[in-house]
Design goal:
about 220 residues, Endonuclease III, domain 1, mainly alpha, Endonuclease Iii, domain 2, 14 helices, single chain
């Protein structure tokens, strides 16, 4: 589908539109500029946005849990150790001892969250067809999974186009720089700001993360 046609189609979509390809991302970025012209110089500065899609399922959700409330560098290091130890499947997590899990860098709370996820028997395939609000509701019903984690999963594992993890510190800091705000917006304020970016708020998030990386020389998302 040509970008122009896809742009028109995305503007008419009601529901969980997906970002599956680089063409989807480019069309959504073009639509974002029509929603808020301030993204035009941001997107020009950051260049092509990264797709950042990953396969859905247990491993993707566990990866999001690992990234909770730690720097991207720390999350990447922990995840690398978990991969090297083979601790990225439900069976492996349940078979591991506390010492095994703490040894790769999991805190005691995250150790509990990982085990709870491993026993949750989530219908990952069923989540693929759910709208964003239902995905968030089902995931946040699990121990240790808050809205940020659920939104990260919806964005990167499921490809939802209209989800923005407004509680993310890097997004809030990027918004200060990008929009010349007097102070860092709270989660509630950033959500209100993002209303005008629908139906492609996940693309706004990608743009702000990329802007954060350029402005601070640090990654905002793993």
């Amino acid at each position: 589908m040509r970008i122009g046609r896809k742009l028109k189609a995305m503007g008419e979509i009601a529901g969980p539109a997906r970002i599956e390809t680089d063409d989807d991302l480019a069309a959504a970025a073009a639509l974002l500029i029509t929603r808020d012209h301030r993204f035009s110089p941001i997107l020009a500065a950051v260049g092509p946005l990264p797709l950042r899609r990953r396969a859905d399922g247990f491993e993707a959700l566990l990866h999001a849990i690992v990234g909770q409330q730690v720097s991207t560098a720390a999350a990447a290091a922990i995840w690398a150790r978990m991969g090297a130890a083979g601790l990225t499947t439900p069976a492996a997590v349940l078979a591991a001892s506390d010492d095994d899990l703490r040894g790769v860098g999991l805190s005691r709370p995250k150790l509990r969250y990982a085990r709870a996820l491993a026993t949750a028997d989530l219908d990952y395939a069923g989540l693929r067809a759910c709208p964003t609000d239902l995905v968030i509701a089902r995931l946040t019903a699990l121990p240790g999974i808050g809205r940020w984690t659920a939104e990260i999963y919806a964005c990167f594992a499921l490809g939802h186009a209209d989800v923005l993890p407004a509680g993310d510190l890097a997004l809030q800091l990027a918004a200060v720089r990008a929009f010349d705000l007097p102070e860092r917006p709270s989660e509630a304020v950033l959500r209100q700001m993002a209303v005008r970016w629908a139906p492609v708020r996940a693309v706004a998030a990608r743009a702000l993360w990329a802007y954060y990386r350029i402005a601070t020389k640090r990654e905002g998302i793993a």
